[in-house]
Design the sequence.
């Protein structure tokens, strides 16, 4: 369990999120009209992806509020390990999940 800590999970999830961000970007730039059409055709999946993204952004904001409380000495610095790190890992996992859904929506299909 020593090697499976939240920081390593965060690094792994961040790497996957970066890769998926690149894939979504490259797919949407190559075929813009196709990608836009797919977003509207698979509306339920697009809305699901955006809801997960909004939840991720809300949790990210909460993590920054915790950081401000730490800077103002309203919370101890140990709150970074017990509150901030789990929030950041959760945000990264939610972002990755949102990008997976979005990539599945806009990726080119072979006919």
Sequence:
């Amino acid at each position: 369990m020593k090697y499976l800590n939240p920081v390593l999970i965060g690094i792994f999830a961040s790497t996957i999120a970066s890769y998926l961000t690149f894939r979504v970007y490259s797919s949407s730039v190559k075929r813009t009209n196709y990608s836009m059409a797919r977003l509207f055709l698979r509306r339920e999946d697009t809305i699901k992806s955006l809801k997960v993204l909004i939840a991720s952004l809300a949790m990210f904001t909460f993590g920054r509020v915790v950081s401000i409380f730490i800077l103002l000495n309203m919370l101890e610095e140990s709150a970074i390990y017990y509150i901030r790190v789990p929030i950041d890992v959760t945000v990264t996992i939610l972002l990755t999940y949102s990008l997976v859904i979005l990539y599945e929506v806009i990726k080119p299909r072979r006919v």
